Structures are given as C-alpha cells and as structure tokens.
Amino acid sequence: MAELTTLSGDPFDRTAFESLLKRRLFYTESFEIYRTSGNLTGDSRGLYDYGPPGCALQSNIVDLWRKHFVLQEDMLELDCTILTPEEVFKTSGHVDKFEDWMCKDSKKGDFLRADHLIETVLEARLKGDKAARGLAVEVEKSDGTTKKRKGPKVNDIKAMKLDDAQVKEYEEILAKIDNYDGPELGALIEKYDIRNPDGNSPVLPPVPFNLMFKTTLGPSSASPGYLRPETAQGQFLNFKKLLEYNQNSMPFASASIGKSFRNEISPRSGLLRVREFLMAEIEHFVDPEGGKKHPKFGLVKDLQLSFLNRSTQLAGKTDLQTTSLADAVARGMVDNETLGYFLGRIYLFLLRIGVDKNKVRFRQHMANEMAHYATDCWDAELQTTYGWIECVGCADRSAYDLTVHSKKTAEPLVVREPRREPLKVEEWQIDINKAKLGPTFKKNAKAVETALTALSQAERESSAAALEKEGVISITVPNLPEKTEVSEDLISIVKRTRVENVREYIPNVIEPSFGIGRIFYSLLEHVYWHRPNDPARGVLSLPITVAPTKVLIVPLSTHPDFAPLTLAISETLRAQGISCRSDDSSASIGKRYARNDELGIPLGITVDFDSVKDGTITLRERDSTKQVRASQEDIFSAIKSLIDGRETWEDVFKRLPEFLGQSGDE
Amino acid sequence: MAELTTLSGDPFDRTAFESLLKRRLFYTESFEIYRTSGNLTGDSRGLYDYGPPGCALQSNIVDLWRKHFVLQEDMLELDCTILTPEEVFKTSGHVDKFEDWMCKDSKKGDFLRADHLIETVLEARLKGDKAARGLAVEVEKSDGTTKKRKGPKVNDIKAMKLDDAQVKEYEEILAKIDNYDGPELGALIEKYDIRNPDGNSPVLPPVPFNLMFKTTLGPSSASPGYLRPETAQGQFLNFKKLLEYNQNSMPFASASIGKSFRNEISPRSGLLRVREFLMAEIEHFVDPEGGKKHPKFGLVKDLQLSFLNRSTQLAGKTDLQTTSLADAVARGMVDNETLGYFLGRIYLFLLRIGVDKNKVRFRQHMANEMAHYATDCWDAELQTTYGWIECVGCADRSAYDLTVHSKKTAEPLVVREPRREPLKVEEWQIDINKAKLGPTFKKNAKAVETALTALSQAERESSAAALEKEGVISITVPNLPEKTEVSEDLISIVKRTRVENVREYIPNVIEPSFGIGRIFYSLLEHVYWHRPNDPARGVLSLPITVAPTKVLIVPLSTHPDFAPLTLAISETLRAQGISCRSDDSSASIGKRYARNDELGIPLGITVDFDSVKDGTITLRERDSTKQVRASQEDIFSAIKSLIDGRETWEDVFKRLPEFLGQSGDE
To answer: Cα–Cα distance between B516 and B520 in angstroms, integer?
Structure first.
C-alpha cells in the first residue's frame, strides 16, 4: 500500500495526529484513572469516552445524518430499547449465529480472534521474506504507526526467505481472509503452524464465541436478556405499526440512531474496534417483485464510485473499478436500483461531512463473510492509516427477518395491496362434508381435516384421480399410527378458478448501517494536516456544518477594555444558537489561533483597539488564514450565511474588505 | 387531590389520552408482538419504543436542552460509555448501596417493592374508610384512570370504618413514605398486617435488591461490569481532563445525554417507571467555600416557584409555599445561590418546552430518601394523572464522588489555585534523621517513618512535650505487635510557620439530572385537550419548537392537479430543514386536520383550486384553527419566522389577510 498523505501532501504522522486528538479531548479511554492506577484487573478494553469537541462533532454528524436521510427521504424514525429479551434474538438467529471464531493460547490462556491471528502471522512472514530479499518493508513503531525501512536494521522482523509459490499462497489467503469459516481457519492454523506471536505457544482449534452481552431482566433470574448488537430488530418488530402509520403505502423506510454493543474478543485499533458504539441504521422495506426499482435513482446514477467486487477478491486481488452507478447496476455488479440508490446517498453523505473522496471505496462481501441474515452486502470503506475501514454496510437482508419473526409470533408481517387486475388462479379445492366427517372420525376429526387442507396442489390432483377411480384415498394424519382412509362421501376434490383481488407479500429489506465512531475517526484522519514546514501546527479542516465549534473569539490581548466586547459577541452568537469559544489567555494571538485550528474551528473573530473604538471586528478563515474586516452586524450576518450554506468563504472574501494587519498567522 | 383538568378545563380522560398516544405511535411497548403472542415468558416489563412522532418530540426536547444548558451556559458535553467495570461502581457506592427494598410473597413468590406495597394497601384502607363514612372516593377503572364515586356501587372498595386516630396515622405514613429504610418498612408491614393485595398472602420481610444490570466484559468470565444507572460517574472520572480543557478555570459544568438503566423491581405507570431511560445530566463543579454564590443568580432571582420543603413533609403535610427564588435562598430553605440558580434554569426550561406552569412544584428530599451520595436534593415534580412525578432531580453531591475516586486511584481530583494572599500555617513538623532511623529499625524503618508522619497535630504537640521531658516517645506502628520507642537522636518535633501559596480543594458538585421520558410523558398530559363538546377530537398543543412535525400539507381533495404543488411545497420545506407531512388521503379536510391535531402539528397549509391558479396558499394555526392566505413566498417566510421564534401566530395573523373559506374546522 502506498504511504498515506495528508490533505497538504505530507506523509501522515499518526503519532502526532492521535496525540492531538487525545490532548484536545476529542476522545479518551474510559476509566483511564482506574486503568493507569492499576485498579482494573479484568478486560475492560474497547471502551472510549468522547470529550467536548468529540461529542459536538459526533452530534453534528448525527444531526446531518438525520437531515440527509430521515428528513430529506421522509423516513420513520424509531427509538427502540437496547435491552432485549432472549426470545427475540433466538428467532433472529443472533443467539446461535452471531459469533466470531476464537483460539485459546494453549499455555497462557489468552483468547485470540482466529482470523486476526492468521493475518498477523502471515503478514509478519511476508515481511520477513521481503527483508531476506533486501526489499523495503513497512515496520510498526511502538505507537502503532508504520514506516518503510530496508536493510539489516529493521526491528522485530525476522528475515526468512519464502519460496515464490508460498508468497503467492499467503497473499491469496490474506485477500480472502474474511471468507473462511471456523474449520477452515483451524485448517490454515494447522497447515501453516500458526502460533501466538506473544510467546510462540500453539493455539487450540477455533471455537465460536457469541458477541452479545448477556444480562438478566427483573428481580428473578429467570429472564435472560441481551444488549442489542444492532438496532435493526426493534425496527422489524414494529413493522406492522409502521406500515399502518405510513397509511399502508410502500415502499418506506424506518431509521434508528442509538448505541449497540458487541463483546469483541480482542478490541484494537482505537475507536475502530470497540465494544460499545453509536449506530445509525435504515431499514428500507421494498416490494421484492418488479426488480426493486427506485424512483429517485436518476438523482444518483451518474455518480462515479470505486468498486471492489466479490469476484476480484476471490481471485486474490484488490484492484478497484471506477464507474457510474448507472453502469454498475446495468452490468449487474450492483444487484438493483434500490441498492444502487442507497450506495449513492451514502457516498453523498460521506462527502457532505468532509470525507476525502479519494479515500472512499465500495467493497462487496464474499459469501462466508456476510452476516447470517444477508444475501448481498456492500461496505463503504474509508482509507486510514489502519488500512481500509468498513464504515457503512449496505446489506440486502431479503425477507429474512420479517419471515422469522412472523413465523414465531404468528403475526402476519406482510403488505396487502389491491391488485389492479384481479389474479385468476386455477387450483384444486377440497370440499369437506363436515356433518359426516365429525361423526366418522370423532376426536380425530379436527386432525384429519387439518391433514386434508395441508395437501399440496400435486397431492390434491392425484387424490382427485384416486377418489374418482377407487372412491377412497388414504392419507397420513400426524399422531395417528396408521394411514387414514377418507371416502368420497366425506370429501370431493374439484378444480376451480379462484380470483385474488388482494396481493400479499413479505417486503424485502435494504439496510444501510452506519458505524458513527468509525466514520468519526476516519473523517478526522481525512481532514488532518499541518501548516507548511511546521508539523507542530496541526489543523483539522472540518466543514463548518460538522465543526464542533463554529467561531473562535480572540481579544488582541488581556487588556481589560476588550472583555465587555468579547462577552457581548459571545452572547450574541450563542443567542443565535451558534457555538463559540473565547480564548482570552495571555498567549500570542498566533498561538491562540494555532491551538484552536487543532479543534477545527472554521472562523475566528479578533477584537482589537479599533473594535473598541469603531465597533468593527475581523473575521478569519481557518484554512486560508485570510481575514476580512467589517461592522459586527455584517460579520454576524456573514457567519450565519456561511453556517447555513448560503455563501462560501470565497463569496464573503470577495464582498467584504480584506484585513491585512495583526493576522498572527505569519 | 382535586380532579385534574385539561388546558380547556375539561376533566382529564386518561383512557382517551393514552389511546391517542399509542394509536399515533408516540410510543409502544417493546416486543409487543412477542408479548401478545405469549412468546415472552420472563419479566421483560418496563421497556418502551418511541415511534416517529415520539422520537421526533424526544429529539426536539433534547435539542432544546442542549441549547438551553450546554450552549447557553457554555458547558462541556461528554459522551461516556454505558458499560462500566465493577471497580468503578464499587468505589462510587452503587454496588453496595444502590438498592430498593423488596418483599417476596410467601406463597406465590412474586416480588413486590416494599414502599409501593405499603402505599397501595394503606391508600385502599383509607378509601374503604371514606366509603364507610359515605364520602366520595377516587376509584381506579380497569384502564388505570380514576373517577370520583360515592355510595354502595363503588367497585372494588371494601367499606371498612377506621377510627380517626388511625386515619391520621395512615395519612402521616403516606406523606413520608419515601423516608423509611428497610427495617422501618418491615416494621410497618408487621404492625399494620400488610399483605399482597393480589391473593392476600403475607409477605416476607424486606430485603435489599440492587438495581444495576450486571454483565461480563470480554471472552473470559473474570471481568464483571454493569450498565450505568446514571451518567454521572463518567463525568467525575474525567474531571481532571475537563478542568484542564477549561484552562483550569472554575466554576464550570460538564453535561451528558444518554441512556441509563435501572432494574426496577416492578415497573409500572407506563413511561414513568421504566428499566431503560434517556437522561440528561449536568455536573456543576463549584468551590465549596464562599457560600456557593452564582454570578447569574440575578437573572432568575425573581421567579416565583412553588416549594414543598422537607419540614412540611416530615410534619405529614403537603402544603406548597409560593415565593421568589431570592426569598427562598435568603431564608435558607434553598441552601445557596448556585442550587437556586439551577432550580430557576430548570423551571425556565420546563416552561420553554410547554409544561403547564400551574403543574410544577419543587419538592425537597427527606433525609432517608436521598441517594447515598447526596447532602441535599430538590426535585422538580410535574403533576399528572399519576400524581406528582419527579422529573428533574437537583442534588448537592458535595465532594463525595471526587473524593472516593481520588482516594481509590490516588489521582488528585482537585483544583489548585494561587492564593491572592499567601496562607501562613503554624504547625508542628517532624524532622527525621533518616541516616540513623534506617540502621535502628532495619526492615521496619519505612513503617516507623510512615507512622511518624501520620501523627496528627495534637499528637505531635504532646509528643514534642514528651520528647523534651523524657527524650523518647512510644508510638503504635501498624503490623508491629508492641509499642515502638523512638528516641530524640532519631527525630525532633518543632513548631514552624509554613507558607502556602497555592490553595488546593476538592470541588463540590451540584447535579441537575433530567429524566427525559418522564418529562416527555408529563408534557404530553399537560398539552392534551379536546375541541369543545367533542372528546373524540383530541389536540396536542405542543409549542412549535418541540412539535414533532412543524407543517401539515393538505390538498383540498385527491384531484390530480394538486399533487405537483403539494410535492413542491414539501420539497421546499424539507430543503430548509423544516419537517412536514402531507395528508392527501380522501378523508374530508376537517377530518384530516383533526387527525393531525392529534400529532400536535402546529401549522397547516391547504392547497386548493386558487393555489393552482394564482399560487397562493392558506396557513392554519392548530390551537385557534384560524387561517391566513398569502403567496407561497410570504407563507414560507412566516413559517420560518414562527419556528425561529421571531414572530408569534398573533403577529402573523395581524399582518397577513385572514382566510375564512373552507376551513374544515367547523
């Protein structure tokens, strides 16, 4: 993989980046004072708190998501509970199948996720081979960042020559690592003698580990429950009410934003693999007939996306194909318009919050990789220093969930709609003479009737012939030991035409599912850069819509004359719902701008001696560091118009006079 | 209690009200299709899902909360994890003390909450007494609503005369029912022979039941964890980082909005006592010295609130005192300005979202009622058909939490600030001659040194005297069996003046804590009424800021000419971020308005034949049902101005021409 660069083309320095995020409290490990003081003996990894700027950024992303999807597409938002009784997840398949494969270190007892173990070991061997061949390899530093190194000084890498066939084998395994099931992973571990890199002990064969957190509801211990691993089930259980709320009109979508939980075997990569996370999920219910067209597909069809499809990966490759959504659907790579429409909307959403369009790809899942409920799935992946990260999944869950819940509860989770043309069905019908059947079979009469009605069309046809020929048929009735004979005085079987005026179907579900924490982290990597030749001056170029704080207010100095104006500006902005931050510390104005660039604050107001005299203030733009000067009224209205998206900075810069003094950015 | 009335003065009909909320999907029982089909065998009560209008109302309340508190008061918002390792809640006291008292039915095995049991039984007896005296009593109908009834036809009430002293005793017990601990509740149960009303069996003595949900973190079973019962602990654990983020300036507040969980023994009263709920909590950190003044107290001091203080309740009464916050603080009923300031801000927030100001009171907790961490607590209670409901708690947690976490982790959770005047402290200091102490006590030297340094000022003073007189002192060293003698060649104890330039203190915490679900339900009761003489036409008079949907669009009929304009209006509004709903069903326009009044939609646009001709549309206001007519541009700008709060309906009605035709509301 080519080395990642920042927006300004500099190599990406993850150490500097993550130190900025933690220093400025975008996020922090949960219970850190307990961890660092040695008070946490158990496994409480994979849990993070968001501090003020992180929390604001997260809530702005969620807000924009709600506008982009729920409001703009008129979706039905729900807020369902996290706690869920066991019965629901038994039906949905999560109790039996929501698992990862886990190996236990035979000596130390550590638990390792099987696919990650194989990946780590094979990647290390490939590096060893490169080192042995004298090629440059990526080495990981203690902080988790990587650098290309060559030669004998490459740390931690055992030079070890592999033959060419082996290299090819390893690379192919890695390309489809997500596609192996447990026994296959076990076979790979045995075949390639894969051991725990920490201590080199052999590991036991992979066993399934259920990823749901379990608890008990109520004071008795008889009611097991789980924390939901996705918000979807609550939406499915409410399907009937939602359809009613939507005045029985199809298609429609429900949506939910909320926390979900997965008990990861070994959390890693900071915010990217955690045990508690914020999700935003859409369940779009669509008629499975008619090719799943979407009326608004035309709005996204010309978007050019980068695709990595299933067959490319199974061939052990990772080449991207860039093409329009129209073409992808026409060629059948993306199955249908509805799926294509959502891939387009997902892409537009990601760009809208500030994701770098050169760091987005859409990857199709391989067969074994898909969740148990999915028939097809595309992930929107964002490129980061941790590799390509799955941030949005877009799965076709077919009619799986509605069917299983409907079966379990006997509640028809279906759409009924009048047919334009009544449907005529030729079929064999059974007429039962109940007045005679009862006395004939007595207590078994009901069971016989049920067995008769259960006969298939083919069975009915042959039974009709038998009845005509022999005057009697013999059928199997559950719980009765022998075949039961039913004679022609009890039933007749005739072919008739039935007219169906109503069509009944179980909708299919297309599910775009967003991992907000992963998007949050990847986005921050995408917008991070530093001022030319000054790696210490980091900037987060977040779009104004999602920036945690919109306006920084800096008085020129700590002179007491500035305080009333600074306060008045801040109150005016707050009253308009615009978040702002005053920095009136004694640091130089340049330093204060620099440290607030780290928070991604897009606009800065300076209060100086002229402000006190004539009321004018300056407005600085974060990325260009350019400034304009005008009356407070003009500056406030420019700020409002920038936030509402009515003007760009270029517009404002053209229409208000530039200010060249005291920029502090030199 | 006087019978509750709606905004329009009609008696409150809870059956009609709750049926409206469920029918229009404000909320619904979770997993309802599992429950009704008999698939839930365990105890999964107390869990509710919010449907589209409920979800929007909830998120609008949260949004306003964020503006009213976080933005306007410049609070530091955090988003901390729900999953928390056991160690944290051991320290905070929740593992040992976060309990309710529970009785088990000796025959049926049901679990009952002890205080609720006593309440139910004594209230029933008081009713029986009234019935025996021939007075009117409140009777509960099968749907949970109450009506006043008199005479022999009073259902379910056993007329049973009590003597006057008994009536007084029961009434006093009920007034302070929240103040009894477990053994006291047990004594009451025995004294008054209180049994399970369902079956009349005796109950076993109350035992404590911990209300936290337990789970396990990670794949091994060695890491117990809990779902947080409040968001507060995450905020306390991050105190040090927050103080730093706030540039070490005090006072400041953090805030969190998120789900919390309490495993209620017997959930009841719909949304009011549930097991999973949304909370919004503020932790305001304040210097305990200087009387906890608040610089903005002046902004709220003249607000008149209704108070029910501790001493009134302990006297067995419930009379309210209405007075200004200034007076309440001056008289010491409310302990300090900071507490008073937050009571005022809470009150303003409640009014802002639409709570009826005649149905709010502030009740002080009695001593035993307070959570283990609180030294004082006032609840904002809202009056509903279920009685007065605690919706916001405002507790003074003193320095409790920061102190215990600091002790446990050895992390100083303190504020250090330079003293204006250095503080001079006269104190006895111990000088230890370490060069001699080591060889003298060998392996015990460290322990002896620790014991010496631990001596209090009083002990040092007497030791100094002893040392002077006898040349030796004898001290107790932990883990050494006998007294240890330390002679004057090893130590000297002298009085010196120490100068302290820095003051160090643990802040106190004032915690306003909002139960969003309870506020949500109570608010809906407050804004519910029906059109005169038409109980079937319910209206929810939600303020426009929190209303789930802002605008209803109704074409006059299903005529196809209306469709393009209806769609265009809806797209224009959505593009401006204004939520709207089109109702183009074939029902009469009056019926369509009526059913959308049930959703609390404040504004309605009608598209009629004139609209198609000249582009004008009408705008209807929900509460008055009055309409104006103007160009689309004027109507859109009026809508925007109403939503932003720049104009009231009265303003708009005055400036735009009234429309009198086709109102559909007659």
So the answer is: 6
